[in-house]
Amino acid sequence: MSSRADEVSVYEAFEGTRRRSGAQPFLHIPVHCAGGLVDLTYEQAGCAIERTIMGYRQAGYGPGYHVALLLDNRAEFYIHWLALNAIGAGVVPIGASLTAEEARYLLEHGDVDLVVHLPEFQALAERATHPIGGLAIATPQAVDAQGAPRAAPRRFAGGQPAGAAIVFTSGSTGRPKGCVLSNEYFLTFGNWYRDLGGRCTLHPEAERLITPLPLNHVNALGFSSMGMILTGGCIIQLDRFRSTEWWPTVIESRATLTHYLGVMPAMLLQLPPHPLERSHSLRFGFGGGVRGALHASFEERFGFPLIEAWAMTETGGAGTISTHAGERHVGSGCIGKPSARYAEAEIVDDDGEPSPAEAVGELVVRATGSDPCRGFFSGYYKDRAATENAWQGGWLHTGDLARRGADGALFFVGRRKQMIRRSGENISAAEVEAVLAVDPHVKEAAVVPVPDEIREEEVFAFIVVPADVMPTGALADAILRGAAERLAYYKLPGYFAFVDSLPVTATQKPRYGALAELARSLIDGPSPSLHDVRRAKRNHGPSRL
Description:
The chain is α/β, with parallel strands linked by helices.
């Protein structure tokens, strides 16, 4: 099973597998997930995709159009993504947890022409598209019934094309950046996974990959989807992670492998022993972020290895680093090595020079061969400066800190960029700060990550209030409520600390290192200035994890 030279798009790769393995299962969604039970073979999915292609074409959509998919982790997402790929349109996945304001930015910046949404997201779609002119909305059922809104003249009027998809990822400057992902990007992702081997060997027409990860991120959109399509495997797509239902679902769905975030093993380890937790058929899990001693504890208790890895939306599969082969150094933060056929990695110092073994420096990656960008993202949409800043000297500068061990394995150390990683979501501290700063009760705000034993990191906000404002717990709750109107649930602070002033550098920028240390000390010891609002935060919307 492979993508052939004449298969130049995601849809063509799907069709190739459909021709060879039409009776094989393509998509399974368990009955307890939102939307109910779904079982589709490659042939059945192909027929549904053909009907959807007809609906889009009859409405006038085709190459160059940008269509946002507000379809959550449903079967409709796969059908419409592949149908739009078939007609040459680019998709812009939108997470349902975003606020209308956040979604509106993605729609405007992504030059979206049409939003296809689940019926239950009608209100969000209407709020997000108002008052953007020339932007239509429709349900997938309307499109499939050939009742899609007629295509207006394209909002995208030239310049950088959208490719197969624009996937937004948080940037350190606040606003999300749109990563342009080509068909080559997706096919490389699938081929890389198919070719990985070692502990992650995929067996043709035999794998059943279970994932609760969201389809508006590339792990599910590019990694699991393409890996299964190019090997004739089945995607077991969950709407969200439910720790108490995990083992029965794994067993009932006959899953053979899974993709995870560090929060998932942590939550499963907190559960009391389950009679089915060793009765599964999982051969390996692939993901990242398992914390220290939890890694070995998980493998000993549940009986399969967690293959730790590192990647970015920008790298796709081509630049992914993993512990699929060689010493895994369990519990040490080891991320392994890149697949030599696809990529190479280096650790560099502040001058861009290679760092010696064990020295901490910035992780940089590139594709092997004469084209360092092959299989990577095509650039940030409408942001050439950011793209050029990311690619320097023929290497993608990741902004992540790592070190190389004596055996050549790489170890993740932390992030140079001011980012927070919570339950698999990258959160820009600058974006949260910008929202907090508009509150009339906030004079200054600075946001840092603090460790969280379940979700890897939590958002911690330092607040300086005006002289006439009393810093109280009620005020912290009020600031949280105001921020919830403009930020998705997971971006909201879990802690507030009121301080008289922020420590700053000579250029008057917050000293984030000092603030992070202070935040950790406040959590470790009782302090009247600290307000734990994690419980109140949960009231503003359920987390996927």
